[in-house]
Input
Amino acid sequence: MKLSDYVLKYLAERGIKHVFLITGSAVANLVDSFRNIKEIKYICTQHEQAAAMAAEAYSRLTKNLGAAMATSGPGATNLITGICCAFFDSIPVIYITGQVNTYESKREKKVRQVGFQETDIVSVVKPITKYAVLVDDPKKIKFYLDQAIYLAKSGRPGPVLLDLPMDVQRSEINPSRLKGFTAPAEKSVSLPMEKIIRMLQQAKKPLLLVGNGVRLSSGVDELRRFLGKTNINVVTAMSGDDLVNEDYPYYLGRQGMFSQPGANRVLDACDLLLSVGTRLSLMQTSFNYTKFAKYAYKIMVDVDASEMHKKILDIDLPLVCDAKVFFEKLSKEVIALQRWDVPRMRNTYPKTKRYLSAYEFAEALSGVANWPIVTSNGIASVCLHQMVRLKKNQRLMTNIGIGSMGAGLPMAIGACLASNRKPVICIEGDGSLMMNIQELETVAFNKLPLKIFIFNNNGYHSIKMTQKNFGQKKFAADPASGLGLPVWKRLIAGWGLKYYSIANAVQLKKLPAILKTPGPLVCEIILDPVQPLIEKWLAS
Output
């Protein structure tokens, strides 16, 4: 069997149905093998970065691995930002790159390059992957694949990369003689349950903070059982804003620097904070991290022990444990928590006079459709996470850790294919969309039913606001300061996509009808170029 055929068959047998890629000489054998494996299909993006980002969202929605492929040299290096996205948000993705023939490789020679486009991508991505390896022996392909997928999914999940030379790809192998990787036995987890229960029951103002680690552990049902049993007050980290919603009567909102004031106030006042499945980054603790939950006894549950000992954290009881396992163990105990009644704050936002507000749009979008919502970073992310109300099981996805502009559209493409081509709502900023604008062709060519909304606020609004706060006046972030932006209506017409625009509250009433329009569409939302935002929270 040809090795490239074996690789695709292996991925298909593990439930991967789509691979995002751009072809090239060094990956041509793998691409050609798709004709022999009918259970898996490739999706051609227009840029490798978009392929990497699409694979991340695909993984998020399928609860399985995402997959992307690229050729050697620039193809491989173009994946890097997308790999970072998956690494910092702990998303399991397998990246496969082509490489020059082993007999053309520089190996240990002190030269820059021997083969055409030869690039040591393994060394480049090691700091941002859980596992990266050059497969130079065809007989080890099963071992490397087994090990890569085990590491991608175990512990704190994350991306892995296999670099396959061209001669390895076209090698003939006997699958029955390949040796695999044996995963180590799982270690039993011992937790100080008596102490955990005692601290929870002694607390007068206990609060639960949950993040996406709960979903990554497949522990959403266990979380909800725990909530139903204890009626504990809960807030969500930005990475887990779709874990709990207003259907739970003691849900107090979304916590963090760019989140809802009510959730942050309750965190400032709690006397016990139980944090599960969030690494408590600066976006959660704020830059005043020494004052984070300063009145609280802090219990942190995370599968990654290294996350407990960052200098921005002072954790009283660090617990290294999978979130699902933790909630399973906790739910077996008899827990009687003291009730801490906190009125749920109504979400309010700064008003604008002449223009539509992004908050106004987010409020109107709430409850209109039950489709996944994908946002890029900047205002698209901030305002949606602060204001939108989700239905039960509705997903809200943003790449949080690296905060990459341009991620929204390719992530929406991945989410759409992961959802069997059902509609997905994509919220992009005008500056952000330009960084992967070419992927509108991927949407149009594949007839993906994305509902794409462009926040037109005349440039990089979030960056300008940050610069203004520091007293800076040279922006390079809008047409007035040197950044060119297109006329969207003309540009969208080039792809033959349906175009709409909403510029005021009256036109906003068209939103339900726009969302019902079949197929892909783009709707430009005209916003205030200097729209005020909900004040950034700093721990107090």
Notes: The mean pLDDT is 93. Residues 98 and 299 are 45 Å apart (CA to CA). The two ends are 63 Å apart (CA to CA). The chain has 23 helices and 18 strands.
